[in-house]
Amino acid sequence: MHLRAYIFGGGLSQPKGVFCIKNHAKQLILASVCLAVLAVSVIFAVYFSTTLSAQQCQAYCLENTQRNATVFGVLKDGRYAEKDYIYRIAVNGDAGKAQEIFVFRQKPLGILNFNRYEFVTSSTALDSSANTAGVGCIRFTARNDKNEREIGYTLLYYGVRAESDIAQYEYTLTTREGSNVYRGNVSKADGFWYVKFYNVGAYDLNEVTKAQISDVHFLDSNGNTVAVF
């Protein structure tokens, strides 16, 4: 009777060592959760502090413009899905100064896309002699969707539509097979025109020689040459 009363009365208890193990396990779990939260917080803090929103990209252009531009046309390079390049081209400002462009690249956080960007380059960071007679030119090596540098470089010509009557372009393309001259119409957007070349200098399909672009001529609507690169 005394033994039964002792058992049912809750007199028997677990050893103190069992409680210590359980408490230690809880502390380890809590510490692991805290470290995980801290690590994620640090990652997000670094990501947002080193990237720009679309509004911040615009502010960056306004702060760094050399031709006192207040309006920038936006051109999106849609080759790499969530890692697209964004070009912001000045469409006003001091007409006597060189054409101006700022290049940004969309930068997701892993598989999460917060529409944040990183600055890549700009015309002001390069030799201003690459701009002539109302035509701007910028060249840089892009990265693909795996963050790998392309074999060739991206070449972009551009200009303010109100400052020059650029209608067509002509260029010489040299490959292993020889040289050929091509002509086309410039692409036009709101306030600016542009011509884009991808993988310039990259090896051709036979991986033997490089494809090069030279003697780029820009013509007005009457067919007169306005600028030559």
Describe the structure.
This protein is α+β, with helices and mostly antiparallel strands. The protein folds into 2 domains: 15-49; 51-228, no CATH class. The protein contains 3 helices and 12 strands, in the order αααββββββββββββ. The chain has helices at residues 2-8, 16-50, 54-64; strands spanning 72-77, 85-90, 101-106, 117-122, 136-140, 153-160, 168-175, 178-185, 187-188, 192-200, 212-219, 225-228. The strands form 3 sheets. Strands 1-2-3-4 form a 4-stranded antiparallel β-sheet, covered by helices on one side. It has a 4-stranded antiparallel β-sheet with strand order 5-6-10-9, with no helix packed on it. A 4-stranded antiparallel β-sheet has the order 8-7-11-12, with no helix packed on it.
Secondary structure class reads alpha+beta
Strand order of the largest sheet: 1-2-3-4
Total helix count? 3
As for the number of domains, it is 2
DSSP strand count: 12
β-strand percent reads 25-35%
Largest sheet: 4 strands, antiparallel
Uncertain stretches of 5 or more adjacent residues: 5-9
Radius of gyration from the alpha-carbon trace, in angstroms: 30 Å
Instruction: Encode the helix/strand succession as letters.
Output: HHHEEEEEEEEEEEE
Q: What's the short story on this structure?
A:
With 229 residues, the chain is α+β, with helices and mostly antiparallel strands.
Secondary-structure topology with pairs:
Blueprint: H1 2-8, H2 16-50, H3 54-64, E1 72-77, E2 85-90, E3 101-106, E4 117-122, E5 136-140, E6 153-160, E7 168-175, E8 178-185, E9 187-188, E10 192-200, E11 212-219, E12 225-228
Antiparallel strand pairs: 1-2, 2-3, 3-4, 5-6, 6-10, 7-8, 7-11, 9-10, 11-12
